[in-house]
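Need tokens for this chain, all 105 residues.
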Amino acid sequence: MKEILDDIERWQAQGKRVALARVVAVEGSGPRLPGAAMAVSESGEVAGSVSGGCVEGAVVSEALAVLEGTGTPKLCTFGYSDDEAFAVGLTCGGVISVLVEPVEW
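Here are the structure tokens for all 105 residues:
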């Protein structure tokens, strides 16, 4: 989380709204542990990572939707069975839960 604070502060200083996505739970194998964070500005800039690649795009889309909507936090769950993960080229399998919410500091 500390590694994305400068980006959040810079975007907010530029007048941009920002959403924060944090891994809050992992079931089975997952690429990042709970606490991993990603910030997304309303213009689509990204800092940090919640999955190392396999669901990053979907998390960015959810973050932008939170910013464009009512600003209500959203819990998103992403995952595949090991067999499905292998079929689509994912190596981790497992399920991650990500909380997406607007940054209001």
